[in-house]
Amino acid sequence: MIFKNMNRLYIIIFFCLVPLLAFGQGYNSKGGSHRGYQTPYTQQEQQPSYWSGSGIALGPKVFATNNHVVDGATHLYVYFSESKSKYKAETITVDATNDLALVRITDPNFKGFPAIKYGFKKSLEDVGTEVFVLGYPRVDTMGEEVKLTTGVVSSRSGFQGNQSQYQVSAPVQPGNSGGPLFNDNGELIGIISAKHTDGAENVSYAVKLSYLNDLIMRSGESISLNKSSQIFSQKLSEKCKAVIPCTVMVVADNESDCHTRHSSTVGSSERYTSQNQDQAMFMIKKAYVNGQDYSEFYRDSGSYLSLYGEEGVPCMSIVLPKQKSQSYGKVTDMDVQHYNATPYSYERDVLKYTWHFQNSYDDNKGEATCRLDVTYKGDEVLFVFEYALSNGEMSRFLGTM
Description:
Elements: H1 2-17, E1 49-57, E2 62-65, H2 67-70, E3 75-80, E4 85-95, E5 100-105, E6 119-120, E7 130-135, H3 139-142, E8 147-155, E9 165-168, E10 180-183, E11 187-195, E12 204-208, H4 209-219, H5 236-243, E13 247-253, E14 272-273, E15 277-289, E16 292-293, H6 295-300, E17 304-310, E18 313-320, E19 325-339, E20 347-359, E21 365-377, E22 380-389, E23 394-400
Parallel strand pairs: 6-11
Antiparallel strand pairs: 1-2, 1-13, 1-14, 2-5, 3-4, 3-13, 4-5, 7-8, 7-10, 8-9, 9-12, 10-11, 11-12, 15-16, 15-17, 15-23, 17-18, 18-19, 19-20, 20-21, 21-22, 22-23
């Protein structure tokens, strides 16, 4: 289980070896569906960072994605979750106005996409047409397997009446950027580019295929979108089987060559930077303070427990994004116990440490005695975090990584 092992590697290396490089959640000012919640540890744009998106094959070694997925990248890779393979890629050309990019996989070890069985539709799609989306949203919490969402074409125009976009009801998340939008005939009709985040539910946007065709024509690439669907009569699950091998996770960074680091995948298409950043993020599902249930409040606040490195020092934060507040600080006196899986129990790591924290909302400081119990249940990573303050207050959080 590469994803599980990577998660465990993040936790153990982070606390035991205090790495100089760490993953973390930040905020990127460029447009699109990859925006994340801004924290006090957000880095400037020139800092080395990591992010991911999605893409769809157009030819043997060429795929389409969003401009905001490749913009600013010094290194590009494609990652195939089913085979756990990663290959180098390079941007061919972009259309910044319509948020499109063409990318070629240049890695000599890549033998090419399988034969494309889906079709392409450059003419306008009708409102009410059933559609489906494939991509790699929020791989930090949702896993690295490709995800499917479905919906309908809600409008022939996008955000603020943008004529280059469709509005669709299929939900998308950070990481779906650059992924394919298909109609019910198995024809590619657009490239997912953004979602509406101002209180609207299931409002997503995709760049129409005609704009991608224009970019291909200008690029001089010998790619034709005049192809009929071979899967139009198949049920949705069979259509997905044909499309998934041609749907890729796009992994990018803006590090200089002397700092390039290779890993099997990165968290999500929210930006990840290499200093003062999350090493691991645990989403809080249940919360108890002095025995009272605060689960609903913490869930509604989008709360998570964050482990990150600040100038080589291991740190931890409890972040409540919707409240725009957090408690944060360094950890010391670390003790780690590892328990192997048995026929009666799952593999676990138990970490005990002291947390020297400060609250962003009232500037109060203090120390807490902490215990983090992480259980690796197949592809799922579960956690129980407990801490006690000197005044006797005790808190307990449960959730997933």
